C-alpha cells in the first residue's frame, strides 16, 4: 500500500465519513438565516489573510532563505543516520504525505513521547516552538529532537562526525556555510545542522483554501453571488469571529497568535504524571546555551532575541498547564488533536469547547474563558468552517538533487 493510500485509509476516509455524518444537520441548518457580516466582522475576517503570508527571513539564522542551506537541510531531514541508532529521521514523525505530522496520538521516535506531533506546515516566523515553547527559534527547535533520547537519541559529536565523514553531506555543508565542517568544534557543526534544517522547514507552506478564496472576494467587495462559499461555512465563520470567541487565540493569517493557553484538556501525560506545559518549557528555553541569548545567534543587533529577553520576566503558573495555540490551517489533515492527541475529530474538538468549563480555561493574560453555549446546529456550522481552512493539496515535492560538487 502506498503512503497516499495508507493516509486515505487511516485519516482522510474516516474524517470524510465523520463530515458526511453531519450532512443531515447541515442541510437542516440551511433553513436558518444565512450569515450577514457587519463592517467590523469583515475587518476581522480580512485580518486572517492574505494567504500565503510571507514570513520574513530569520535574522538569527544566517542561512535562512539560502538555497544551498535548504538543499542541505532537506538531505538531513530524511537521513536516518542523523539518529543515534541510525533508524530514525526527522521524517519519521513529520511525514510529508501526512501534512508533516504522523496522525498518531503521540510521537514515536526511538521511544514513545508524551505529546502529539505538531505539523511543520507554515511553521516559519513563530516566536516560540514546541507545545510548551521550549525553543525560541526554529533552528534551536530543530536541535532538540536530535538530542532527546526518546526521539533521535544522538549527540553533537555523532552529528558532526556524520557530516564530516560523508563526502556528500560535507560538500553541502560547505556550500551552505562557506567553509568545511570544523574539525575541532562538534557543537558549532551541530548548531549549523539545526540552522540548515530550519532553512528547509521554513519552505513548508500550505496552499490556498476555500476560506482564502472567500476572503479575497470580500476584500474585492465582490457580491455574495460571487463568493462560492457554502452558507454553512459562512455561518460557522460568523460564529468563529463572534459568539465562539475563537479569534482570541486563533488570529492572523495563520490562525494562531503563537501564544499559550489553557485548553481545559487533561493536564496529565499518558503515564499519569502531570504535564506542566509552558511553566517548564520557558525555563528549558532560557536555560539552554542554544537559545537566542547564547553564542550562536547570528543577529548581532540583538533585536531577534527580544521575545527571549521578555520571557525572563514571564510569570508562568505551574497550575494552569498552558500549551501553544496551534495553527488551524490544514487542520482537517492533522488528526488526532490536542497536545496529547486525545481528540479524534474536528466535531469532537468543537464539542469539547462548546461544553468546556470556563474556569479551567484562560489565556495568557489570565482572563477566564466564557462558556460557548453552542447549539448542535451551530457546532456543525463551526465544523464546516474549520474544514474550509484545509486543502488536500500539499505543494511540497522532493527535488531531484544531484551529487554535490
Which properties best describe this structure?
two-stranded antiparallel ribbon, 15 helices, single chain, disordered N terminus, 405 residues
Describe the structure.
The protein has 405 residues and is mostly helical. The protein has helices spanning 3-20, 23-29, 39-46, 67-77, 90-93, 138-147, 156-165, 167-177, 186-201, 210-219, 231-241, 278-287, 306-311, 346-354, 376-387; strands at residues 260-261, 323-324. Helix 7 (156-165) packs across helix 9 and helix 11 (231-241) packs across helix 15. The chain starts with a helix and ends in an 18-residue tail after the last helix. Mean pLDDT is 86; it is low at 1-9 and 11-31.
Brief rundown of the structure:
The protein has 405 residues and is an all-alpha fold. The protein is built from 15 helices and two strands.
Strand order of the largest sheet: 1-2
Number of helices: 15
What is the succession of H and E elements? HHHHHHHHHHHEHHEHH
As residue ranges, the low-confidence spans are 1-9, 11-31
For the termini, the CA-CA separation is: 36 Å
Morphology: globular
Portion in strands: under 5%
Output mean pLDDT.
Answer: 86
Number of strands: 2
- Outline the biggest β-sheet: 2 strands, antiparallel
What structural class should be given to the helix and strand makeup?
mainly alpha
**What radius of gyration results from the CA coordinates?**
22 Å
The percent of residues in helical segments reads 25-40%
Task: Lay out the secondary structure.
Elements: H1 3-20, H2 23-29, H3 39-46, H4 67-77, H5 90-93, H6 138-147, H7 156-165, H8 167-177, H9 186-201, H10 210-219, H11 231-241, E1 260-261, H12 278-287, H13 306-311, E2 323-324, H14 346-354, H15 376-387
Antiparallel strand pairs: 1-2
Helix pairs in contact: 2-15, 4-8, 4-9, 6-9, 7-8, 7-9, 11-15, 14-15
Amino acid at each position: 500500500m502506498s503512503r497516499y493510500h495508507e493516509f486515505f485509509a487511516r485519516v482522510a476516509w474516516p474524517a470524510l465519513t465523520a463530515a458526511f455524518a453531519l450532512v443531515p444537520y447541515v442541510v437542516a441548518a440551511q433553513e436558518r438565516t444565512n450569515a450577514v457580516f457587519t463592517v467590523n466582522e469583515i475587518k476581522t475576517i480580512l485580518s486572517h489573510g492574505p494567504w500565503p503570508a510571507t514570513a520574513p527571513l530569520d535574522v538569527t539564522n544566517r542561512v535562512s532563505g539560502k538555497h544551498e542551506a535548504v538543499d542541505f537541510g532537506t538531505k538531513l531531514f530524511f537521513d536516518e543516520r542523523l539518529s543515534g541508532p541510525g533508524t530514525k529521521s526527522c521524517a519519521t514523525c513529520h511525514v510529508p504525505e501526512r501534512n508533516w505530522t504522523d496522525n498518531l496520538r503521540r510521537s514515536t521516535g526511538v521511544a514513545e513521547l508524551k505529546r502529539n506531533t505538531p505539523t511543520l506546515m507554515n511553521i516559519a516566523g513563530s516566536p516560540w516552538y514546541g507545545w510548551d515553547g521550549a525553543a525560541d527559534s526554529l533552528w534551536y527547535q530543530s536541535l532538540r529532537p536530535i538530542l532527546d533520547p526518546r526521539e533521535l537519541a544522538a549527540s553533537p559529536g555523532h552529528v558532526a562526525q556524520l557530516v564530516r565523514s560523508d563526502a556528500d553531506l560535507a560538500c553541502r555543508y560547505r556550500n551552505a556555510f562557506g567553509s568545511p565542517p570544523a574539525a575541532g568544534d562538534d557543537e558549532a557543526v551541530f548548531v549549523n545542522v539545526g540552522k540548515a534544517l530550519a532553512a528547509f522547514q521554513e519552505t513548508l507552506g500550505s496552499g490556498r483554501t476555500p476560506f482564502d478564496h472567500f476572503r479575497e472576494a470580500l476584500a474585492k467587495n465582490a457580491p455574495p453571488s460571487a463568493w462560492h462559499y457554502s452558507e454553512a461555512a459562512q455561518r460557522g465563520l460568523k460564529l468563529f469571529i463572534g459568539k465562539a470567541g475563537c479569534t482570541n487565540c486563533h488570529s492572523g493569517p495563520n490562525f494562531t497568535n503563537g501564544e499559550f493557553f489553557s485548553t481545559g484538556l487533561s493536564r496529565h501525560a499518558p503515564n499519569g504524571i502531570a504535564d506542566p506545559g509552558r511553566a517548564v518549557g520557558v525555563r528549558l528555553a532560557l536555560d539552554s546555551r542554544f537559545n537566542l541569548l547564547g553564542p550562536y545567534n547570528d543577529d548581532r543587533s540583538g533585536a531577534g532575541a527580544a521575545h527571549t529577553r521578555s520571557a525572563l520576566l514571564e510569570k508562568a503558573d505551574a497550575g494552569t498547564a498552558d500549551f501553544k495555540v496551534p495553527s488551524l490551517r490544514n487542520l482537517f489533515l492533522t488528526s488526532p488533536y490536542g497536545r496529547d492527541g486525545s481528540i479524534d475529530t474536528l466535531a469532537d474538538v468543537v464539542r469539547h469547547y462548546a461544553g468546556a468549563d470556563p474556569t479551567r480555561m484562560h489565556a495568557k493574560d489570565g482572563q477566564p474563558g466564557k462558556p460557548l453555549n453552542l447549539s448542535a446546529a451551530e457546532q456543525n456550522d463551526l465544523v464546516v468552517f474549520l474544514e474550509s481552512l484545509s486543502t488536500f493539496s500539499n505543494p511540497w515535492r522532493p527535488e531531484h538533487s544531484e551529487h554535490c560538487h
